[in-house]
Amino acid sequence: xSLRVRNGLVGWSFILPNFLGFALMTLVPVIALxxxxxxxxxxxxxxxxxxxxxxxxLLGDNSFRIALVNTLYYSVxxxxxxxxxxxxxxxxxxxRLRGRTFxxxxxxxxxxTSIVAIxxxxxxxxxxxxxxxxxxLRQLGMANPPGWLTSTTWAxxxxxxxxxxxxxGYYMIxxxxxxxxxxxxxxxxxxxxxxxxxxxxxxxxxxGLRPTMFFVTIILTINSFKxxxxxxxxxxxxxxxxxFVLSQFIYKKGFAxxxxxxxxxxxxxxxxxxxxxxxxxxxxxxxxxS
Length: 290
What we know:
mainly alpha, 290 residues, 2 strands, 13 helices, two-stranded antiparallel sheet
């Protein structure tokens, strides 16, 4: 056996277990999803081929439109707010701050905390009558503070606040890694040239963080489109349908109403939305880099 063939077999022996796992757990289900989206199947019996009827039905489904708008609303608020909060934490905890290891751990801890525990604590914090937030607002002179999770107007902003608090520690770690790749010589040269702290941030830090910012934006946007667990335990899509999102629509149609073909079509629509946004972000990043 030649050296080239032997090296190739060794390489495939490392890749094959992971590829088999990916094929069985991801690739095959995704292919099945696309097939089921073109059928009418309720888990019992055979799947009847309906072509694009499920997608046509989605266009006229008012519940789907509400879920789509709520998903976009959540993402538009959550993505920039989380980027700003996580980047701010990373900048703060990248300095020689006493106890910074503890603070980094404390900031990351909510990301690995149980969703149920987070929902229970924040439901108490946002309680309209007894929560500390509304108590502070009343002391500041606000006679009728928001109902937060019980209000159709304020439920989604409250969910965004909770989600940002939960996620910012994880993305802070990514930004910290990016900050530590920026050469210190650039900051020293900027100081010698008389650049202020703000000028160093705009002209050294942000350009140096461009690859990290691009990665974080894509991952955060996709995760925002897929939000499900936090909303399910916090509001269950309510009050009314004010926090009803696409993942919840898919779950409801598939596992509650057993319309697996229709739910698969909605999942394909969500997949297409994620792909579209990713392509747009790649195009914008390419133009900025050129």
